[in-house]
Each structure stands twice: as structure tokens, then as C-alpha cells.
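User: My instructor asked us to take a sequence, write out its structure as C-alpha cells, and then describe one feature of it. I'm not sure where to start. Here is the sequence I was given:
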Amino acid sequence: QIFSNKDEKLKFLGKMLNSDSSRAILLLLTEKEMTANEIADETKQSLSLVIHHLNKMMQADIVTISKTIPNAKNQLMKYYTAKSGIVILPEKAVEKAKESKSFSKQRKFW
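Assistant: Let's start with the prediction itself. The C-alpha cells for your sequence are:
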């Protein structure tokens, strides 16, 4: 994900990552995909708080639903994962970076 240093999403992202809960969830999701229940168990947070943070992270476009599969009770379980990387650039450089072939190739490995 590429952000301009003047992007409003960056302010939102900063506020969100100021939370210990959000950072703990994001760290887990950089390691493996997990359901909201698994995250709640792992972090000892309430399910409603985890879902709140996941929704904010999806709004910020740093977390995505990687798959949805039915559980034993045939309820759909969403698996979340962190997106690969965040880059903050001066506003003038954002479009060039998005269009750069070498930059795009490097982003796949973050």
C-alpha cells in the first residue's frame, strides 16, 4: 500500500496504529491468517473489540479477508491476513512509484 504524506488515510492509519490492540492484531496477521475468534483467544481480547479493530484495519486497507470457509456448524468463518507492506512517500512521488515496474516487483516481497 502506498500513501502520500498528505493522504487523509495516513492520519487514520496513524490513529489506528496508536492502539496496542491494533498493533498486536496486525502483528499476528503478518505471521499467519486467522479468524476473529482465533485472534481474540490469542490476544485475550473480547471478540467484539477484535472485530472493531479488524474493521478499522480493513477500512485502512492494511488487512484483508483471505478466505471464507464453513466451520463444523456450517457457519462461514472469515480468515484475515495483513497486506504485504506500507510505503509513505512525498505526494509528488506517489504516482511515479505506483507506475514503476521495479517498485511493483519489490512490493510483492514485502
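For the description part of your assignment, you could build on this observation: The longest strand covers residues 63-70. Try explaining in your own words what that tells you about the chain.
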